[in-house]
């Protein structure tokens, strides 16, 4: 069963899709910057075997509205809460990648009673000053030339050289998602990223959490993500071989296996990496 609806949240409305058996536990999936809910297409078949899946377009992306001005993580987390409330979901598992992973952490920190488990994928808890300067440069480029101005350089960070050589279909999918992202949505979400400050709060995160990243991810490097897992009381760390930043698209079989194992409790005898 599949249903698409709009959910109001503050100054935005969100495009939401519900898929799967109503008898199964809930899972909500949050997309990365400059993508949309279709980034999870390679996961849905695996996810709906075990969960009723809610995926949505982050504000400013895909079919959701793009309010002008800077966004913050309080608003992005509030969007998930609005979806949970609209669908009368008391608690859900949450999987998010990059911006979506950071939003999932924010939900777990602010509303732990609404979350069973978090899969935080290819995401950081904070950015160094050099990375923040890079975000400012990309904002300038998008302001001047639209999101298309940063597409090719972004693809270089998102995928490994092997994928660039052998998988033009993946690059085309990612390019289409980026080019459909509104300027206001991109700028608004980058403004939120520049204020990211969850790393120091991770010792307070009590929700069982899987920190996953690609072995070749330069944006969320394995050593950084493993450090996040070490700081979190009930956490595991997994690296996906031969994958860069958008690991769920680049290595879907391994990604799906690791996420399903985590959600169902198989393969994770402990949530403590120490």
Explain this structure:
- The longest helix has 17 residues, at 129-145.
- This protein is α/β, with parallel strands linked by helices and 274 residues long.
- It has one domain: 3-Layer(aba) Sandwich (Rossmann fold), CATH 3.40.50.
- It has helices at 41-48, 73-86, 99-110, 129-145, 151-158, 161-166, 168-179, 183-193, 222-231, 247-250, 252-264; strands at 2-9, 12-19, 26-30, 52-56, 92-97, 115-121, 209-214, 235-240.
What global shape is seen?
Answer: globular
CATH topology: Rossmann fold
Biggest beta-sheet profile: 8 strands, mixed
Using only C-alpha atoms, the radius of gyration works out to 17 Å
Measure the end-to-end span: 41 Å
Arithmetic mean of pLDDT: 96
Q: So how many helices?
A: 11
The CATH architecture classification is 3-Layer(aba) Sandwich
Estimate what percentage of residues fall within beta strands: 15-25%
How many beta-strand segments?
8
Biggest sheet strand order reads: 1-2-4-3-5-6-7-8
| CATH level-1 class | Alpha Beta
Given as residue ranges, the uncertain stretches (5+ residues, pLDDT < 50) are 268-274
């Amino acid at each position: 069963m599949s249903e698409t609806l709009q959910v109001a949240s503050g100054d935005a409305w969100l495009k939401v899709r519900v898929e799967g058996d109503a008898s199964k536990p809930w899972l909500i999936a949050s997309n990365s910057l400059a993508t949309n809910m279709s980034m999870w297409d390679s996961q849905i078949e695996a996810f709906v075997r075990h969960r009723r899946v809610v995926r949505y377009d982050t504000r400013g992306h895909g079919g959701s509205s793009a309010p002008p001005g800077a966004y913050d993580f309080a608003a992005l987390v509030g969007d998930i809460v609005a979806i949970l409330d609209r669908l009368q979901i008391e608690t859900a598992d949450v999987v998010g990648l990059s911006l979506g992973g950071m939003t999932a952490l924010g939900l777990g920190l602010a509303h732990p009673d609404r979350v069973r488990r978090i899969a935080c994928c290819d995401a950081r808890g904070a950015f160094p000053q050099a990375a923040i300067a890079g975000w400012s440069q990309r904002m300038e480029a998008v302001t001047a030339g639209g999101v298309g101005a940063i597409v090719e350089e972004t693809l270089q960070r998102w995928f490994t050289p092997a994928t660039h050589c052998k998988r033009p279909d993946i690059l085309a999918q990612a390019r289409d998602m980026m080019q459909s992202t509104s300027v206001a949505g991109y700028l608004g979400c980058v403004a939120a990223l520049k204020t990211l400050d969850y790393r120091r709060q991770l010792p307070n995160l009590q929700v069982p959490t899987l920190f996953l990243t690609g072995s070749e991810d330069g944006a969320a490097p394995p050593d950084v993500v493993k450090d996040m897992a070490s700081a979190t009381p009930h956490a595991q760390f997994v690296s996906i071989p031969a994958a860069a930043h958008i690991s769920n698209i680049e290595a879907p079989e391994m990604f799906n296996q690791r996420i399903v194992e985590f959600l169902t409790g198989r393969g994770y005898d402990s949530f403590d990496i120490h």
